Amino acid sequence: MSDIRGRLRLLERDYELEPVRVLVLKEAEIPTPSGVTVIQRGEELDLPRWQARKLRDAGIVEVKEPEIGAEDIARVHFTEVHSRGAIQLAQLPPRFYLKVREYIESLNRAIKENPSPSLFNDRANTEKLLADIVDRRLNKIVRLVVAGGDDSVLDKMTPEEKILYKTLLETLKTWREGIIGYLGR
Q: How many Å apart are CA 79 and CA 12, to the nearest integer?
């Protein structure tokens, strides 16, 4: 279990270090590996996601990468609910779970700054849809593993799901071998 947590943390770190395109809104000095760099208004550059987020929150840059929102999550939910077959996975957008987490965190910040019924509803609806997406996909992944696995669906899994799938597949294989080996003695 802790191995899975560690691997998920590595995915999160990789995501935070991933470069994103930003538009500089106002001149500022920012730390870089080579020292302090001055960024100019109107300039576009790539920054690690964590740094882009901090500068965005400070009003210094605008992140050019589209963020995921309530409509995107609802669309993914609809697609997952209506995907063909009991174990057919719908294709998720890249970094889906991490981006949804960022969206929920942005809703939480907005609620702290200016609580409103619509923000509370947005957060509750997003959490409900996400939980249903996760449960449906988990159910399908477990069915795949119990059926012996099917690596042809790996391209439709997120990195987090691949970790789960491979871990479950190996665990079930080891368990089966242990039981069958025990019965054969």
A: 25
Closest by CA position to 26, among listed 14, 38, 15: 38
Cβ contacts of residue 17 below 8 Å, gap of 6+?
48, 49, 50
Residue 181 has a pLDDT of 76
Cα 36 to chain center, whole Å?
A: 31
How far is the C-alpha of 24 from the C-alpha of 45, rounded, in Å?
A: 8
DSSP letter at 66?
P
Q: Note the pLDDT tens digit of each residue in 16-32.
A: 999 999 999 999 999 88
46 strand-pairing partners: 21
The class level of CATH for 2-63 reads alpha beta
Q: What does the block give as tokens for 18?
A: 């991933």
Query: Architecture of 70-183 per CATH?
Result: Up-down Bundle (1.20)
The answer to whether 74 and 68 have CB atoms below 8 angstroms apart is: no
| The model's pTM | 0.84
**pLDDT band at 2, cuts 50/70/90?**
low
What does the domain layout of the chain look like in residue ranges? Answer: 2-63, 70-183
- Between the alpha carbon of residue 150 and those of residues 32, 60, 92, 153, 180, the distances in Å are 44, 47, 18, 6, 22
Q: CA 99, 104, 109 angle in degrees (round to 5)?
A: 120
